Each structure stands twice: as C-alpha cells, then as structure tokens.
C-alpha cells in the first residue's frame, strides 16, 4: 500500500468533518420538529397535526 499524500488526507478529513456537521444539524432539526409536534399535541389534543 503506497503512502497517501497530505493533500488527499486533508480532503478526506474535510469531507468527514462536513458529513459529521451535516448529520448533526439534521439531527437537531429532526429533534426540534418532533419536540414541537409533541408540544402542539399536548396543547391542542383535539387538532390533527400531520
């Protein structure tokens, strides 16, 4: 296995960091929408929220 260049390693680390950031933001957005739906159901139990 030949050695990997520094530029390639930097690119791989950048892509991995971007993936982690995007996944974490996706989780934050998903969790906040779930919490908002629960809160709405608690405050307005007779309404239907899709």
From TrEMBL:
Domain of life per record: Eukaryota
Stretches that traverse the bilayer: 12-32
Keywords associated with the record: Membrane, Transmembrane, Transmembrane helix
Name used for this protein in its record: Small integral membrane protein 27
Organism this protein belongs to: Spermophilus dauricus
């Amino acid at each position: 296995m030949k050695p990997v260049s520094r530029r390639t390693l930097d690119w791989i680390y950048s892509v991995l960091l971007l993936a982690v950031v995007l996944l974490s933001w996706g989780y934050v957005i998903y969790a906040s929408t779930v919490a908002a739906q629960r809160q709405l159901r608690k405050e307005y139990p007779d309404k239907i929220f899709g």
